[in-house]
Structure formats: structure tokens, C-alpha cells
Amino acid sequence: MTMTKFSAFLKDESGAVTVDWVVLTAAIVGLGLVVFTYIQPAISGLADDIGKEVDKAGSKMIAAGN
């Protein structure tokens, strides 16, 4: 009797779609992390450049008396 319940459990496919979605979501998140790892240095460099330009513009505005 226990073996028939176990066999029925193994043959049940009602949760297969949920497992597929979990695996697919994990793959997408993993791919996003890999991509972010490669583009993060470029984004940091760009943010630093933007910060420097904003500082320069602020200094020029202060020097001009605005």
C-alpha cells in the first residue's frame, strides 16, 4: 500500500509547471547577474565621469556668481 502511494506521487505531474517556472526564473536571474558583473565597471566609470562634469559645472557657476 505504501508503494502505491509513492508510485502515485512520482507519477503526479501537477507541480511540473511550477518547477518549470522556478527553473526558468532562476536562469533569468543568473543570466542577469552574469551580465551585470561584466557591465558594472563601465557603469561605475560613467557615473564617475558624470559626477566630475557636474562638479565642474557647479564650480563654474560659483565662479560666475550665479
Could you give a short description of this structure?
The protein is 89% helix and 0% strand. The protein has 66 residues and is mainly α.
Principal-axis shape equals: rod-shaped
- Report the average pLDDT across residues: 87
**Number of E strands:** 0
Helix percent band: over 70%
**β-strand amount:** under 5%
Q: Could you give a short account of the major beta sheet?
A: none
User: How far apart are the first and last residues' alpha carbons, in Å?
Assistant: 87 Å
Q: Tally the helices: what do you get?
A: 2
Which series of helices and strands comes N to C? HH
Class by SSE composition: mainly alpha
Radius of gyration: 28 Å
Task: Kindly describe this structure.
- The chain is an all-alpha fold and 66 residues long.
- The chain has 2 helices and no strands.
- It has helices spanning 2-11, 16-64.
- It is rod-shaped, with a radius of gyration of 28 Å.
- The chain starts with a helix and ends with a helix.
- The mean pLDDT is 87.
